[in-house]
Amino acid sequence: MDSFKNKLNSLAKTLGKSVPNESEYIDYKTLRKHYEAQANREIAQLQQQTKKQRIEQLHGKSDLNPRWTFSNLVEDSDDVIEAVSIAQSFIAAHEDKAWRDAGSHMMIFYGDYGRGKSHIAGAIAHQLIDQFEITVLYRQLSTLLEMRYSSYDFGAQDNVGQKFRQANQELLDVDMLILDEVCVNESVLKKNAQSWLGNLLRQRLVNKKNCILITNHSLNDLAQALGSYCFESLKEYDTYKVKFSGPSRRNGLEMDDQDDLPPPRYQPNQLR
Length: 272
Fold this sequence. Notes:
This protein is of the alpha/beta class.
């Protein structure tokens, strides 16, 4: 081995090349390990970048408010503290594949306006996307119903029927569907709306898709508003009911001193 190395060194001197020091020599096995480690680091970095891009795309498609996160939530009342605890348990359960494959799960958030229902639902969704890359879709039920009614206008020129069919398919396929403002300002949904929503929830149930429903109704009023066919579909899910009863977290409109005065008497325009 030494004579071979000497020959290489002699040849290098003849060619005017520098002769490597003994300390600079790296054997093949060491060199191979070095390049394998470097390749693994580059692959891990590429995988991390690809995962980040996938997660960003999932957030973008979800239509969630980016401010709806647990870090932005003020836990200032017992109902919010309890809701966050239930939410965290629900998220942690996704670690168990058996739980995820066991069936469909539904969370029902109910209570008055401004209690933080949509915020916590959005925080759950954001965390599920980040941890498990779960597809999420946030929709207001009233908007979907308006689109559905418009789809019956066969004379429309904006392809609203095709758009609704595509939207309806997204509602069926997404892993986590958040329906907000369920039956808002509605004491009873129309019969055809009850049937459509009931069928949607039943199909998601069969396909083991999860849901979060957000409503301002009490559970009794929600049952009446949805109708028996639709409400019965909720009972088939593994259901978590969370009531919000704390103070409103929405800032009210500031009132001027003039607001306490009676309104001025109406006077018609006068020619001057």
